[in-house]
Amino acid sequence: MRDYLRVNEVQGAECAADATPSHAALEGQIQQLESEIAQVAALDSLTVQQKYLKIAYLRLDQGDAMAATAIAREVFTAAMASMWWQEATEACDVLFQAQEGNAAVKALAHGIWLGVTFPIDAELSVAMLQHLIDETPDNADGAAVAAAVACYLVDLRVNDTEKRDDLIFFTTQLLGQVARRHSQIDEQELFNFWVERMQLDDPTKFLPRLATILDVLVAGDWWFDRDALRDLIPEEG
Fold first, then answer.
1. CA-based radius of gyration for the chain
2. Spatial distance between the Cα atoms of 62 and 27, rounded to a whole number of angstroms
3. What domain range is 29 assigned to?
4. Looking at the structure, do residues 113 and 61 belong to the same domain, yes or no?
5. Domain boundary among 33, 68, 99
6. Per the structure, how many domains does the chain have?
7. Contact 136, 145 (CB under 8 A)
8. Does residue 236 form part of some domain?
9. 106 within 8 A of 213, measured Cβ to Cβ
10. Spacing of C-alpha 24 from chain mean position
11. What is the dihedral sign for C-alpha 92, 97, 103, 108?
């Protein structure tokens, strides 16, 4: 599974020595994936799209944003047509990282909508929300809303005890980080008051606020019919 979350950044840990593979090593991985794709008969299969996503992320690692963007756009189209919500969200993640300005923000908003609406891997959903937090000014409420939604999704979706504990710790730290930069909160009692004042403990309040934020980011240019997609939402257990 891809490591979506930047845990060290949230926890303030020192970065380890740069272990990024060389350009040649990345190219070797890409060629291997392309060879595997060539051996698959059904080029529109989920397996193929997942391999293309791996290539797109590798292109990002190489600094080839144009190639990553082209691949992600095709994967997004195929994934949406086949209702592969995880892969569609990953494609939006690539598009966000590969592009700049309004194009990046719009891709992020679409990825967050999919990642919150459909019960995909909670770690990916949290990562998309973390991107929004990073893009939000310190004094704006959007980061707080995104962090609250991240905590909520982990509590709702993750059943595996070890993963749940790790993600709860991560999202709690994330919310605490947002509180410090938003309102200089550094004490538990003040934090609890801040959460209550911001209505971050009530999903009936913070989920609609997130929807409003996404509407603003997309500026009316949605790539899909959200009402039609809502009819496809399975019940979360």
1. 18
2. 8
3. 22-99
4. no
5. 99
6. 2
7. no
8. no
9. no
10. 28
11. positive
Looking at the domain assignment, is residue 74 inside a domain?
yes
Same domain, 61 and 129: no
Q: Can you read off the two tokens belonging to residue 89?
A: 């969200």
Alpha helices in the chain (DSSP H): 7-11, 23-38, 46-62, 65-82, 85-98, 101-117, 122-135, 142-157, 161-183, 188-197, 203-218, 226-230
What confidence tens digit (pLDDT) does each residue in 166-188 have?
A: 999 999 999 999 999 888 888 88
| Burial state string for 198-235 with b = 16 or more CB within 10 A and e = fewer than 16 | bbbeebeebeebbbebbeebbeeeebeeeeebeeeeee
Same domain, 112 and 209: yes
Q: Do 90 and 118 belong together in one domain?
A: no
Q: Which two tokens stand for residue 23?
A: 């350009």
The C-alpha atoms of residue 228 and residue 231 are separated, in whole angstroms, by 6
Measured distance CA(57)–CA(61) in Å, rounded: 6
- Judge if 120 and 160 occupy the same domain: yes
> Helix 142-157 to helix 122-135 angle, to the nearest 10 degrees?
170
Q: Name the domain boundary from 47, 79, 99.
A: 99
Q: pLDDT per position in the chain (237 positions), as tens?
A: 467 775 444 444 444 445 568 888 999 999 999 999 998 867 669 999 999 999 999 999 999 999 999 999 999 999 999 999 999 999 999 999 999 999 999 999 999 999 999 999 999 999 999 999 999 998 889 999 999 999 999 999 999 888 999 999 999 999 999 999 888 888 888 999 999 999 999 999 999 999 999 999 999 999 999 999 998 886 654
Q: Are residues 124 and 93 in the same domain?
A: no
